[in-house]
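Sequence only, no structure available. Ideas?
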Amino acid sequence: MKRIALLFAGQGAQYPGMGKDVYQKHGFVREMFSEASAILGYDLAEMCFSENELLNQTENTQPAITAVNCSLYEVLKREGIIPTAALGFSLGEYSALYAAGVFSFPTVISLVKERARCMAAVARKRGGAMVAIIGLGLEGVKAACAASGSVIANHNSPSQYVIAGEEEEVRTAVEKALALGARRAVRLNVSGAFHHPLMREAAQCFKPNLEKADWNPPSFPVIMNCNASELRFEELTDLLEMQIYSPVLFEKSVRRLVEELNIDAFLEIGPGKVLSSLVRRIVPGTEVYNFEKASDLELIKEVLDVSER
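Reply:
I predicted one. Tokens follow.
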């Protein structure tokens, strides 16, 4: 029986139509979308399934991706797929916590709604940029950041890091990184410098929502972004507050899952396949699967030996 780690996508993975087929196929997914719509104050299905620019606004992106992630997880859960652990990338951490039973669905949507509101407000006020540096090792990226004042916001893989900072800082860092041998620098389509100290104000804005939220102990381990360690329940509020302005230690988190929890298969849940690609670079040869559409389900059940569970 495989030891499975779930991976949940974060902001930037969204696209019009995500989750539509499972919404059409499953009544319980439609009920989840209806519940989320009541919390958000708009028609979530319309937001997710129609061509529109609003989906790319932080206030809408974060709840939309979370609802799609959670509904896809519920499809898997009803098929008997039992994870050993979970890891979410940035925003995806909230979906991982939902899957582990830490937050109820109404709670996770309410929290993400307020998280997005706080982050978007600070981004409008402070600005900032994020750029993926591809093909340069950690020491080179550190040198580029040191020369500019920007910081590493995401440790994605041994050859991919995302830097963040004010516009001029990031521009300088990109020039330095390319001079040091980076193959490419790709600007992220985000509204601010997330996972950067510029977001401390957003974390302070969001913290009261965490303090009054209801939660439960996790039913399986969740590896947290800002320390790449298994969640200790008493640290949940502090870790989720810190996550907003701290680096995402994705590479280290994946290695911890493999080396300490003996994970032998990863299942990415949600829109896109970015995390799967990163895992293959971090742990070459590992088994990685995706659940993004209803048509993916039969293969997943076969390769993950659901019949044995």
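The radius of gyration is 19 Å.
Hope that gets you unstuck.
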